């Protein structure tokens, strides 16, 4: 499996609603992405990865089997549990075949319960 960086999630998104002065806290996030894949068949998976004081963490958002060149909508809700200072939160795509080429058409990350805004759209190729 090959992990490919897609985008860094700005702190304004993952820190929204953080309770003050708590060392351990959680947030639920709606994540959606259109991904165009070509060059090889196999599986793809959208993940959120983050690094905090407790180490590196991975949360699976969604996956799909790619049978031919085309697009896939990967979406889901993930709960992230943070401990202390958070270094980074990012979206990554995991590919089963190194011959797969991909283009992320759109990527949204939104805290559950918040109003969708233009700043939740991290990638747009339109």
Description:
By secondary structure, the chain is mostly beta strands. It has one domain (2-114): Sandwich (Jelly Rolls), CATH 2.60.120. The chain contains one helix and eight strands; from the N terminus they run E-H-E-E-E-E-E-E-E. The strands form two sheets. It has a four-stranded antiparallel β-sheet, with no helix packed on it. Strand 3 (42-52) and strand 4 (55-66) form a beta hairpin. The longest helix is centred in the N-terminal third of the chain and has 4 residues, at 11-14. It is globular, with a radius of gyration of 15 Å. The model has no long low-confidence stretch (mean pLDDT 90).
**CATH homologous superfamily grouping:** Galactose-binding domain-like
Q: Strands of the biggest beta sheet: in what spatial order?
A: 1-6-3-4
Following the backbone from N to C, one meets helices and strands in this order, namely: EHEEEEEEE
The count of DSSP E runs of length 2 or more, i.e. the number of strands, is 8
Radius of gyration: 15 Å
The CATH topology name reads: Jelly Rolls
Main sheet: strands, sense, barrel: 4 strands, antiparallel
- Based on helices, strands and strand pairing, what is the structural class? mainly beta
Stretches where pLDDT is under 50 for at least 5 consecutive residues are none
Number of domains: 1
Dominant shape: globular
Beta-strand residue percentage: over 45%
Report mean pLDDT, rounded to a whole number.
Answer: 90
Overall helicity? under 10%
End-to-end separation in angstroms reads 29 Å
Instruction: Tell me which CATH architecture applies here.
Output: Sandwich
